[in-house]
Amino acid sequence: MSVDAVLDHRRYGTGQEPAILRRTARVLLVDGQAIVRFGLRQLLAAEPELTVVGEAATARDALLIADRAAPDIVVLDVDLGHGDTVGVDVARTLLERRRGVRVLVLTSCRDREVMLRTVRLGVHGYLRKGADTADIVRAVHAVLRGESVFDSRTTAVVMDMIRADEPGDRPRGQMLTERENQVLKLLATGMSNREIGVRLLISEATVKFHVRNLRDKLDVRRRTEIVYTATRQGMV
């Protein structure tokens, strides 16, 4: 483990504690810049529901600490200094290896292809480093609640690239109900379940029900794949 990696095992154990004893969500910070990791740690330290269990500057350390600390969420910069694909590979490995972990990308990377590849993996959020600190904190909490968070610029770029992409081989999804179409269109704007419920005057639980139906009908596993798949099939 490099000198830029920190695992707070003395305070936070191995992540195997019973859920009832884990009073805070466990956060792993992965960024090649020490000053950024320090700033994020200080920012999240003010949140009583969050505990930073480790930080890493390299892909190797990120995966090693993730295995040891069992984070609930990883705040990841896809640009770790050795090419943007390194961070994308970290996101892929985390999502494949650690069931239930959530990945929030916080990056200054402006490569449109990297952005699209990362979203396709099923990351739960994608923000630029220029985001307001309050927005970053809100994004962490939203992702932990099971929501997806993408800033407006990222949403616009991804939607443009998806529409320009060649149609996939996947057949068009089953016929959607009027309400499912309404939910789908609002999902495409980046709204959370709560915001969709307010807009449509329905409960958040009802929104979750429709989102689950959309996943089933489009044959996808993650919320972030709904809009991507629906757009490629000409449904949005």
TrEMBL record:
It comes from the Bacteria. Keywords: DNA-binding, Phosphoprotein. SUPFAM superfamilies: C-terminal effector domain of the bipartite response regulators, CheY-like. The modification 4-aspartylphosphate is found at D77. CDD domains: LuxR_C_like, REC_NarL-like. Pfam families: GerE (PF00196), Response_reg (PF00072). Residues 26-144 form the Response regulatory domain. One of its GO terms (biological process) is phosphorelay signal transduction system. The keyword DNA-binding applies. Residues 169-234 form the HTH luxR-type domain. GO terms for molecular function: DNA binding. This is Response regulator transcription factor. It comes from Pseudonocardia bannensis.
